[in-house]
Amino acid sequence: MKKLSSILMIALSACVFQACNGPKDSKGAADSANAVKDTTTSGLTGIAVDKDDAKFAVNAANGGMTEIALSQMAVTKSINAKVQSFASMMVADHSAAGNELSGIARTKNITLPDSVDNNSKKAIDALSKVSVTNFDKAYVSKMIDDHKDAVKLFKDAAKNVKDPDLKAFVNKTLPIIQSHLAAIIDIHDSMK
After folding, report:
1. Looking at residue 43, what DSSP letter applies?
2. Distance CA 167, CA 66 (A)
């Protein structure tokens, strides 16, 4: 009986260990970390931050990292000079915004994801498998969709974010995202 109990304990431990090492979603982990943080006091535990403000920061960081990854691919894979130029601008602008957001998050004790979420990984993987002849059209379409989503995210944040530093970031970044959307729509229209 003791032997059977020992075997069952070892098997259970192995299952628990395996479950802990399953596929990771960095965005989900960041959301979870922010949900359990004590951000109700200032000092070592962090500055008070609304949970919706933290969720916005996580979503914005994920979106920015996704745009960078997709655009880095476009810089090397695109055969259209306008697309390559846009992709280079995307890498530069989203890297700068990501660095600014990271700085704000550190001061507010917000945990940002260190990699893109699973949906973004799938999108990056799917785009990487598109042939060179179809790449530009697929990239441009993805950029239009992603920037429409980003504009909506930032417009909602402009109305709802409570933290003044995050609100300033939103107000500074929203016009840049809107200009990205206008630029990629122009590229799309020129490709017809």
Report:
1. S
2. 22
Domains, the chain, in order of start with CATH, read 2-190 (1.20.1260.10)
Which amino acid makes up residue 32?
S
| Structure token digits, residue 76 | 């090397």
Cβ distance 109 to 38 under 8 Å?
Answer: no
pLDDT (tens digit per residue) in 128-171 = 999 999 999 999 999 999 999 999 999 999 999 999 999 999 99
Closest of 111, 148, 141 to residue 126, by C-alpha: 141
- Residues 35-61: pLDDT tens digits? 444 444 434 445 557 899 999 999 999
Amino acid at 179: S
- Please calculate the CA angle 107-110-112 and round it to the nearest 5 degrees: 115
Kindly state the DSSP code that residue 21 receives in the 8-state scheme.
Answer: T
Q: Contact, 170 vs 157, CB < 8 A? A: yes
pLDDT of 10 above 60: no
